[in-house]
Amino acid sequence: MAAHSHLPLLLLLSLLAVVSAHNITDILAADPQYSDFNNFLTQTRLADEINTRQTITVLVLNNAAFSAVADKHPLSVVKNLLSLHILLDYFDNTKLHQITNGTTLSTTLYQTTGTANGNVGSVNITDLKGGKVGFGSAASGSKLDSTYTKSVKQIPYNISVIEISAPIIAPGILAAPPPSANLNITALIEKAGCKTFASLISTNGLIKTFQSTADKGLTIFAPNDEAFKARGVPDLSKLTNAEVVSLLQYHATPKYLPVGSLKTTKDAINTLASNGAGKYDFTVSTAGDSLTIHTGVDSSRIADTILDSTPLSIYSVDSVLLPPELFAKSPSPAPAPEPASAPSPSPGPTPAEAPSPLPASPPAPAGETPDGAPADAPSTAAERSTSTGKNDGVHVKASAVLTVTVTALSALLISTTFM
């Protein structure tokens, strides 16, 4: 009986945990003046990190203040800068004006990277005279060059989003060179056992494209040498030069996708070969720690991580990725030696009207998340808006179901407690 009495409480707590979840992308999407900041949180995958944290404060910058710095630096530097604006503590308007002794230091995500020495990865927050609050690097000699502007969104005491006037610049944070500056992508791929793929991208001029794209975000899926020897692999000599280039481009996407992002991505992923919606893309499915790419023609397991260094990821895969745009029916296999002849069996009676076997269907791509999934933490502006579209309808239904469920479980908990 006691075990049953705790069940409603556990269910209620789990539902409340869902309610308290947040989504920084949805919060910032409500105001277009934060679009640049929001886009870079997505590109650097810091949005995923923010959404997994239970207590966090994001110091957001409007487009004018942020682009003045971000436009001058590669993605790896922008990621470090953004990380310095993500505090691992909760600060809202009230707490900012009630700081003990008027000043405090807060640790940031930048401190967790292991590249920040001393207090470089912390932020100094000081309650100034006249009701202002100043922000600056906690490194010795740094100035409070930024001030609190306004509150954007709070979910106490889970996430707080507040706007500040200017970027916080820690010593040396803008000086780091991009990881791809002195990186030999071809050598890395060859060393990982993908010599055939490395040779193909070099002879077809793709390595230059990869190198120039890497600074802004790139993920490469390199088939290992055994993949090119597998049965059914297309005979590249029967493809035009343009088709070979498209096939190679299909093995790279202009986004930085670490393993964590691949595991959470439900939508189709565009590639360097994509030239329109639904063209030359693929999906990824997850089974435990295993990741599989589905093209619509074949599937391939991601075998190993060759490199993961923002903004570049390189993986080895077990099979050549075949896009439907080139191999909608079946690829022309590379020539193979004829098998040894064997005596023909004596003819036997043929069953009447025996159906001819159908070719095997290609594996279906991983399921996609339907559009209009409810936001984890809608902004205040979104909450006041009137639902007019399909997506809004989904939000209304989800809220209604959740409200009814929580109410019913609360009543059940109360009745069980007094029985």
From TrEMBL:
Membrane topology annotation: Lipid-anchor; GPI-anchor
GO cellular component, one term: plasma membrane
Sequence ranges assigned to domain FAS1 in this UniProt record: 21-168, 181-321
SUPFAM superfamilies: FAS1 domain (SSF82153)
InterPro entries hit by this protein: FAS1_dom_sf, FAS1_domain, Plant_FLA
Amino acid composition bias (Pro residues), ranges on this chain: 332-365
PROSITE patterns per the UniProt record, alphabetical: FAS1
Gene3D superfamilies in UniProt: FAS1 domain (2.30.180.10)
First and last residue of the signal peptide: 1-21
Keywords: Cell membrane, Glycoprotein, GPI-anchor, Lipoprotein, Membrane, Proteoglycan, Repeat, Signal
Top-rank taxon: Eukaryota
Subcellular location: Cell membrane
Pfam families per the UniProt record, alphabetical: Fasciclin
Annotated spans, Disordered: 330-392
Family stated for the protein in its record: Belongs to the fasciclin-like AGP family.
Biological function: May be a cell surface adhesion protein.
Protein name: FAS1 domain-containing protein
Organism: Phaseolus coccineus
